[in-house]
Specification:
Two copies of one chain form a homodimer. Chain A is an all-alpha fold. Chain A contains nine helices and no strands. Chain A binds a DNA duplex (30 and 30 nucleotides) through residues 8, 29-32, 39-43, 45-46, 49-51.
Chain lengths: 194, 194
DNA sequence: CCGTGGCGTAGACACCGTCTACTCGGCACT
DNA sequence: AGTGCCGAGTAGACGGTGTCTACGCCACGG
C-alpha cells in the first residue's frame, strides 16, 4: 500500500529516500532508482533532467526530515535556552548517526545541484534557531551571534562526520558520543551553572 | 624532468596527487590516472589491486603533506600553547582550503580502503599534538584532554567542510574565516587573556 | 639456449549517466 | 467520428567507468 500511484516524480523521491537510508549513497544510481520504482531507466529524465537533480530532491527531503526531527525534539520551546541547545544537539547528532546515508548525501556537494533553489538554504531555518537560542543563552559581549552559531554548528557537523569516519572513537577512546556533546556545549556556552 | 622513471607505483601516486589537487576528486578515475601516467588502464592493477587502494595511497600522501605543513608552521614549538594552537588552526584550515580536492579525498571514507593499515591512524600524531598543546594551555578541571582535543579537531574539521560547502558564508555573512577561527579558539580555550 | 617470471597491453564484461528515436493512449478540436 | 497532438514512458545507442583474464614481451638465470 505504498502510495501505489502518487505520480512518478514523488515515487522516485520516495524510493530514493528509502534506498539511501537503507543502503547508503553508493546505491543511489539513477538506473537503480528507476528499477526499484518499476520504470525504465529513461523515465526519470522527464522529471529530473539530470541525476544530480534527482539526488538534490532526495537530499531536500532529508533536510525536511531533519528539521521536523529537531522541531519535534524542541517541543514548545519553553525550556531554558541551554537545555534546548542540548536537546537540539542530541537531536542533530542522533539524526546524523541514525541516517548516515542520508546525512552524507545532504552534505555531498559534488552530488547535489547546489543551485537547485535552496538546498544550502534548506539548513537556514535550523541555523536561525541556533542563533536565537544562543543569544538567549547569553554570549560573551562583542561576539557576533551568527559567527558563534556558525562555529557551534560546525562543531556538531564535524563531530558527526568524524564519528561516522571512526576517527573520534579511535582518538578519544570513547564509544559514546554523549561526552563529546557535553564538552562541545560547555565550550561554547561556558561551564554548566548549578 | 618529473621523476621520469621512479617506478610505476610511485609515478601513479604522484600523478594522482597532482590530479586531485588540480582538478578535484571527480578527476581521479583509475583510467585517467593511468592515461596521465602514460600506461594502459590495466597497468595500475599490478600495484594497486583495486581503485580504492590507489586512492588510499594518494590520500596518505595528503595526510603526510598536512602533517609536514603543520610541523613547518609550528616551528620549534617554543611559543606559548595558545599561540601555537592558533597557528595550528590556521595551518589546518589553510591546508584544507588550499587543497580542497585533496582534503575532500582524505575524508571521503567511501573512496578509501579504511583498513589499508593506518589512514585514520595517519591523523593520530597530529591529534596528539593537539591534546598536548591543550593540556599545556590549561583545561577546565575534570575534562578528559582527549575529549577536548577531539571536540576541537571536530570544530576545525566542521568549519573547513561547511566553508567549502558555502554554508558558512551564507549563514554568517562573513567572507573571511579568520573570525570563525578566533571564535573557535576562544570557545575552547576561554577568552583571550590580556 | 631455453624457460620462467615480472611487467605491462588489450579486450571483454557489466554497469553507469545521457541522449534520441520511438510507441502508445487519451484529449481537444473540427 | 475522425484526426492531430501532446504528455509519458520505452528501448537502444554512445562513451565512460572498474574489474577480470588472456596474452605479449623482455630480461635474467639455469
Amino acid at each position: 500500500m505504498h502510495e501505489e500511484d502518487a505520480g512518478l516524480r514523488a515515487r522516485l523521491i520516495e524510493v530514493g529516500v528509502e534506498l539511501v537510508t537503507r543502503e547508503g549513497t553508493q546505491a543511489l544510481s539513477l538506473r537503480e532508482i528507476a528499477r526499484r520504482a518499476g520504470v525504465s531507466h529513461g523515465a526519470p529524465r522527464r522529471y529530473f533532467p539530470t541525476h544530480l537533480e534527482l539526488l538534490s530532491a532526495i537530499a531536500r527531503e532529508g533536510f525536511a526530515a531533519l528539521g521536523a526531527e529537531v522541531a519535534r525534539a524542541l517541543g514548545d520551546g519553553r525550556a531554558d535556552p541551554r537545555a534546548q541547545l542540548t536537546t537540539l544537539g542530541r537531536a542533530y547528532l542522533g539524526f546524523a548517526l541514525a541516517n548516515r546515508g542520508m546525512y552524507e548525501l545532504m552534505f555531498r556537494h559534488d552530488l547535489l545541484e547546489s543551485n537547485h533553489l535552496g538546498l544550502r538554504e534548506a539548513s537556514l531555518p535550523l541555523f536561525h534557531v541556533v542563533t536565537d537560542l544562543l543569544t538567549r543563552a547569553g554570549l560573551r559581549p562583542g561576539v557576533d551571534p551568527r559567527i558563534a552559531a556558525g562555529v557551534l554548528w560546525a562543531n556538531a557537523h564535524g563531530i558527526a562526520q568524524l564519528w561516522a569516519w571512526g576517527s573520534l572513537q579511535l582518538t578519544t577512546g570513547s564509544a559514546e558520543l554523549e561526552p563529546l556533546l557535553r564538552a562541545t556545549l560547555e565550550a561554547h556556552l561556558g561551564p554548566e551553572p548549578r
